[in-house]
């Protein structure tokens, strides 16, 4: 799926055909035509395509001429307008059979969404989002969209989520197509975010391009931040900024606490090293530090600086320093000095804070050290950061009482007029890219704010996530965190539950290596059943997007843990669905499929595979592929793994099937790893470098928790090298060792706590 390649699709009548499509980023334009294939060597492009006359031919620019081809009457020559000065990796052409929907944005740009034949309807949602997004960016940057048209097109076989080719953006079908009846809420949200991301690149990346791949993060981090700004503008009801924290911020911190992380800015000398940096650091940490920077500068000056930057460098190339200079000029703040501590060194700080009441004031003592996944930082020269810190109190939990820039290892801060009974919290809105460790007295005073919801949702989430990662690193005990998790009984917010659910999932995977796995399932059921009962199975009048997401999450969690009532209802609804009596709403399909498969047999799996075959939408096929790994018996697991490499599964989706098996059960983990070793040639050839190979390795081995597995993984890849996944492999081995240490350290106390909970049920 690189360079100029063929993509297989099936026509409505069932015939297999091929489209010809491109994917050039990072270094594959050279596979299609000879060129100076580096981002700073920009040129204009005059493209013409000689194609069968019954096919659609598209490129970056609009068609200016279409004439018969002298040697063959079935073929035409299509000529496109000259492009602006641009980089090779953004050139694109597509030849195939497509329908489209179109509109004009309010600033006059022609917008089209191309879909598989017969599915034009499914392009309407993305079309609306694109038509709202272009004017939003035009106003935000104060720079007009530079081309006469923009096309968004769904490609059947596509490795990435999407690619921002200038004027012709390519997408996986699942990142672009929405069917009003059969698409779930999370798919809509995903499409809106991906459209927002790729359109942001039309300015930030395409009009102004990074000087060299070291600055890739500028492109990706920026687009990954502003996609949320744009979705928040189009869909305020998504509460998308809270979701950012759980989707990007915490994910980046998890990776960046490892010894095998890397700085945001990485020197790149070989194409395999470019593939390697399309990771959570470039995207998610990049987006998180830009969010922190935007908060530190303020929206008005940030916009002013962005406009200076885009105007100064349009049709040219720029480096990270150039953006800092524009933002510094606009804001008068020491941007470069602050930001270099975040982009040029890896990792982030843990801020330790204790407080003392001095008459009417609260004195805070702050100190910073690098946060390490393996526990307290030990080493001579501890790196330092310039940390924008906000402090709030229970008097007004939504506004900062004080903002400071912490530019030294230790600082004392006085908060005026804070009563002894008021709590104090750092990192309002979980915007600063650091973790906080409170003294036990400060933490005690914050916990009631979780129960009575006086702490804002994103602060409740951040507090819980910090504690979980401190336990994972052995700085506090895991039992303390389990106690805090029980305080979330009244929690209404989807994203807070989603983060809690992820952390309990990590803990479940860890404890699948023990003989008390069932006890942690009981704990999960206890935590999730009150909210499950409140929500019920069917949407209530007046509910919105987030209620639908929460219901799917909670039912899936309860079903997977074997909650009796949930399991029975899931089986009943599944039967009605399969028999065509009552089709499941799209939002309930994942949790129901997962539940019946995990507690089902060979017949259940056969029914699921049949549903997969019959599904007309790629979204539904993916939905099924992702849950197949929940099946428990060894022979069915083998069947799922074989299915992953069959013709039934698109090449980019094999990864999520194998990953699902590895994450589904203890046996699945072993089986998936063996399957990867046995089929390594085929898998490696299929993804030739590329980030899918890294994702495959990460998903399949990171759940192990025995020291010797780290050695086995390392040894396998020493004899079967995968250069673009080298760093991922080191990170996985490090994670396996960390899991093993966590298990040794805390398994016994967790077990004791879970047993003691059983014998004395908590009082409501």
TrEMBL record:
InterPro entries: Aminopeptidase_N-like_N (IPR045357), Aminopeptidase_N-like_N_sf (IPR042097), ERAP1-like_C_dom (IPR024571), M1_APN-typ (IPR034016), Peptidase_M1 (IPR001930), Peptidase_M1_aminopeptidases (IPR050344), Peptidase_M1_dom (IPR014782), Peptidase_M4/M1_CTD_sf (IPR027268). It is found in: Cytoplasm; Membrane. Transmembrane segments: none annotated. It comes from the Eukaryota. Residues 423-736 form the ERAP1-like C-terminal domain. Binds 1 zinc ion per subunit. Zn(2+) binds at residues 197, 201, 220. The record marks 283 as: Transition state stabilizer. It catalyses: Release of an N-terminal amino acid, preferentially alanine, from a wide range of peptides, amides and arylamides. Its EC number is 3.4.11.-. Keywords: Aminopeptidase, Cytoplasm, Hydrolase, Metal-binding, Metalloprotease, Protease, Signal-anchor, Transmembrane, Zinc. Residues 1-90 form the Aminopeptidase N-like N-terminal domain. SUPFAM superfamilies: Leukotriene A4 hydrolase N-terminal domain, Metalloproteases ('zincins'), catalytic domain. GO terms for cellular component: cytoplasm; extracellular space; membrane. Pfam families: ERAP1_C, Peptidase_M1, Peptidase_M1_N. Residues 125-342 form the Peptidase M1 membrane alanine aminopeptidase domain. It is a single-pass type II membrane protein. The active site is at 198 (proton acceptor). GO terms for molecular function: alanyl aminopeptidase activity; metalloaminopeptidase activity; peptide binding; zinc ion binding. CDD domains: M1_APN-Q_like. Its cofactor is Zn(2+). This is Aminopeptidase. The gene is NPEPPS.
């Amino acid at each position: 799926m690189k360079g100029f390649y063929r993509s297989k699709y099936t026509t409505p009548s069932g015939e297999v055909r091929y489209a010809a499509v491109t994917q050039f980023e990072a270094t594959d334009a050279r596979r299609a035509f000879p060129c100076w294939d580096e981002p700073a060597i920009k040129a204009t492009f005059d493209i013409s395509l000689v194609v069968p006359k019954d096919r659609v031919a598209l490129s970056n620019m609009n068609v200016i001429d279409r004439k018969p081809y002298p040697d063959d009457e079935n073929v035409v020559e299509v000529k496109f307008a000259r492009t602006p000065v641009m980089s090779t990796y953004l050139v694109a052409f597509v030849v195939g059979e497509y329908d489209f929907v179109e509109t004009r944005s309010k600033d006059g740009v022609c917008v089209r969404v191309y879909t598989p034949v017969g599915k034009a309807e499914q392009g309407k949602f993305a079309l609306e989002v694109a038509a709202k997004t272009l004017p939003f960016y035009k106003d935000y940057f104060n720079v007009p969209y530079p081309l006469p048209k923009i096309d968004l097109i769904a490609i059947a076989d596509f490795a990435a989520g999407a690619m921002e080719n200038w004027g012709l953006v390519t997408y996986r079908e699942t990142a672009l197509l929405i069917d009003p009846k059969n698409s779930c809420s999370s798919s809509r949200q995903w499409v809106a975010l991906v459209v927002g991301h790729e359109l942001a690149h039309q300015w930030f990346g395409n009009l102004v391009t990074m000087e060299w791949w070291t600055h890739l993060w500028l492109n990706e981090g920026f687009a990954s931040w502003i996609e949320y700004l744009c979705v928040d503008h189009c869909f305020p009801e998504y509460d998308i900024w809270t979701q950012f924290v759980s989707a990007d911020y915490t994910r980046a911190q998890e990776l960046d606490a490892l010894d095998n992380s890397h700085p945001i800015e990485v020197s790149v000398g070989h194409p395999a090293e470019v593939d390697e940096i399309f990771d959570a650091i470039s995207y998610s940490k990049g987006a998180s530090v830009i969010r922190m920077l935007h908060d530190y500068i303020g929206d008005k000056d940030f916009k002013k600086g962005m406009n200076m930057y885009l105007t100064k460098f349009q049709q040219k190339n720029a480096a990270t320093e150039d953006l800092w200079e524009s933002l510094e000029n606009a804001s008068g703040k020491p941007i470069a000095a602050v930001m270099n501590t975040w982009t040029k060194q890896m990792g982030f700080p843990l801020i330790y804070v204790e407080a003392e009441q001095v008459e009417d004031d609260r004195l805070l003592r702050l100190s910073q050290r690098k946060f390490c996944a393996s526990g307290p930082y030990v080493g001579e020269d501890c790196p330092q950061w310039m940390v924008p810190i906000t402090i709030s109190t229970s008097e007004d939990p939504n506004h900062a009482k004080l903002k400071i820039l912490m530019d030294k290892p230790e600082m004392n801060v006085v908060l005026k007029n804070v009563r002894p009974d008021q709590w104090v919290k750092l990192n309002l809105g979980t915007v600063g890219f650091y973790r906080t460790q409170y003294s036990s007295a400060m933490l005690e005073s914050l916990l009631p704010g979780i129960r009575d919801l006086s702490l804002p949702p994103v602060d409740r989430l951040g507090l819980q996530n910090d504690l979980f990662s401190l336990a994972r690193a052995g700085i506090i005990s895991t039992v303390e965190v389990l106690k805090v998790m029980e305080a979330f009984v009244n929690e209404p917010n989807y994203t807070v539950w989603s983060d809690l659910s992820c952390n309990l999932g990590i803990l479940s995977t860890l404890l699948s290596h023990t003989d008390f796995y069932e006890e942690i399932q009981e704990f999960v059921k206890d935590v999730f059943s009150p909210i499950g009962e409140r929500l019920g199975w069917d949407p209530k009048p007046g509910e919105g997007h987030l209620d639908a997401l929460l219901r799917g999450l909670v039912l899936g969690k309860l079903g997977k843990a074997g909650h009796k009532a949930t399991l029975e209802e899931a089986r009943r609804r599944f039967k009605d669905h399969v028999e065509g009596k009552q089709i499941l709403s799209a939002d309930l399909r994942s949790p129901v499929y997962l539940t019946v498969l995990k507690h089902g047999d060979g017949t259940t799996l056969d029914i699921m595979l049949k549903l997969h075959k019959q599904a007309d939408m790629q979204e539904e096929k993916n939905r099924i592929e992702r849950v197949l790994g929940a099946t428990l018996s060894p022979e069915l697991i083998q069947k799922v793994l074989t299915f992953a490499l069959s013709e039934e599964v698109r090449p980019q989706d094999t990864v999520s099937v194998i990953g699902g098996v590895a994450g589904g059960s203890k046996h699945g983990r072993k089986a998936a790893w063996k399957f990867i070793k046995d089929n390594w040639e085929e898998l490696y050839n299929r993804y030739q470098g590329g980030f899918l190979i890294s994702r495959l390795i990460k998903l399949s081995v990171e759940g192990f928790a025995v020291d010797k597995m780290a050695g086995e993984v390392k040894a396998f890849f020493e004899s079967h090298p995968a250069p673009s996944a080298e760093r991922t492999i080191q990170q996985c081995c490090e994670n396996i060792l960390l899991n093993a240490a966590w298990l040794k350290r805390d398994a016994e106390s967790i077990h004791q706590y879970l047993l003691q909970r059983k014998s004395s049920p908590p009082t409501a």
